[in-house]
Amino acid sequence: MSGFTDRAEAALADPILKIAVERTAGTAEAKRGIAIDAFPDFEAARSRAAAIKDHVIAHLGAYLEQFEANAIAAGAKVHWARTADEACAIVIAICKAEGAKSVARSKSMLGEEIGLPHALAEAGIGRVETDLAEHIIQLADERPSHIIWPAMHKTRDQVSALFKAKHRSPHQEETIAAMAESARRELRTQMLNADVGMSGANFLIADSGAVCTVTNEGNAELSLVPPRVHIVTAGIEKIVPSMPHAIHMLRMLARSATGAALTQYTTFYTGPKRAGDRDGPDAMHIVLVDNGRTKMREEGLAEMLRCIRCGACMNHCVVFRQIGGHAYGGTYPGPMGAVLTPVLDGLAPNRDLIHACTLNGKCQEVCPVRIPLPTLLKGWRDKSWREGLEPTSMRAGLGLWAWIATRPSLYRPVTTIAMRVMRLLGKKGWIASLPLAGGWTRHRDMPRPAAQTFMTQYKKARRP
Amino acid sequence: MTRTVALFVTCLVDLIRPRIGFAAIRALEAAGCDVVVPERQTCCGQPALNSGDRDHAAALAKQTIVALEPYEAIIVPSGSCAGTIRCHYPEIFEHDAHWLSRAQAVAGKTWEVMAYLDQVCGWKPKGVTLDAKATYHDSCSGLRELGIKAQPRRLLKAIDGLTFAPLAGEETCCGFGGAFCVKYPAISNAIVGEKADAIDATGADLLLAGDLGCLMNMAGKLHRRGSKVRAYHAIELIAGMGDGPAIGEEA
Predict the structure, then answer these.
(1) Which residues belong to any copy of the Lactate utilization protein B C-terminal domain (chain A) (predicted)?
(2) Range of the structural domain that residue B189 is part of
(3) Which of A70, A258, B74, B161 gives the lowest tally of CB atoms within 10 Å of its CB?
């Protein structure tokens, strides 16, 4: 039993998790379907989005340099980090130089990827998560289970109990409005009093040096404008050439994620407070993080760099819908996570992720940037096989089967005998227990093979 | 004009349910085709390909290409096996110009049987009667790799007496996934359990689909649960063989 299998089976045994995942992902699936139907030629829009990303990824260096020059011209400081550790070290150094005691953080999966919450804790810097779902995760001391709904694994009742246990003046009424008010009371002063505001970036705009964030709660704006310093950590693949490109990607992102036409708040941050501005931070730092992305481009995973982190692949994944996000064990769950986690955390310990997929292709069908996720997963399977990471039993079994199957004159008698033996295990057309295929018969019956193979029957019928 | 077509039987149909192969022959002959069954065929190599075993996948692909390339069309009673030949054989040989051109030639004339009957032959079953209510599951590879959706429905609608109950989530994977269902039995079971719920909820007598792997998964689950729904490959009904034993029934 692997860690993944254990976690997946624990998830399957949790009926509340199933309800929670189904509620959120099911609603998202339905709303996305309506939004896409109402969109004129979504297929063409997907192709354009994929082309924009491919163009940027192919010319990444040039666009990053353009972004850097424009961000600096707007008054921001730009930092480059090759690894997660380098990125965290840069962020912590900025915080220390600013004498920061507290950080208000607007949800960022890149921050999770590089381990920023942990790095802040180690440095003794207080952190308040200001996205409502991240706030729930922070109170529960858990990790996000979905890239856009970090707390999707929790039901409203569970959140209510958590707020009552952890908030200073929790809600009295069991209504969503009262719970939201309780979170607002808890978070607002912390946001306004933070020394540093931190965010990721949904898009980096090369020709203006702007950083775009989208939220539905307005917490990014409230976390990033009042504090003295704004620190952005962003993956280098987040770049788009210009505002019209960003707008196209935003149309794809919101619809694919939640089915909404646009998020409630879409903000472009271009440098710190300028002379005459009424508010805004005194300093803006942008940390551009590679953390394996350049290597992905070189090693056949360039298409994965198109990803705009909408979550549609996981919302529509039959496996994710059964086991939720935590079972995957990495920062990113679902199909996109199964492709990315081996990059970030290594292939050998994450071999299950690349196999726990039926290759049904739904994720690719809904991906707004046409990432061929099943093909990329199969690419990982090829690599795992080449590198000898697949279990010996699997290699031996497939090898024997292929050895026979590539010899048709041997294959016929061998399969005829095998099917006869298999038939003996069944009665009345069905086999209830099959050695070597316990995974099948534990949960379902196996139809008994025919008395004679097609090839045998066919030859008899055609014999003159 | 008579077309000579080669039937690629597929290993599952050969070993588990030959009826599907004979149904394909019967329908193709009714549509005016001469059907031959090339001798040196076994498996298309999909299990190796999906497991990362590229060498064995390539060996089986070469054997299949050699067996099938003499014919003007290759007909397969499975969306996923047809998809392997049509979509993935050329990928296997992307760095081997000689085999790539042969793989592309075979890929270009390989058809899933119902798509071929509908799109190429323009044929419909005539005089086939079956009083039953059926529901249809769209197997994923056929649907997403080959665009098989309307073709089986058009053919099935020509059967007198057959009525249809739509399946909620008809395009949702049944949880088979080849080796997936034995590697991750608990997850697969949860998925096929929901599929069986949806099938039972239709009130249909028959479950139809175009891929034996998916059908074995769903039928096996339905049988374990004691459901009365009987499962057939759609081509069996189309060929007028819907009155015979369903999957898991003895003749």
Answers:
(1) 399-458
(2) 126-238
(3) B161
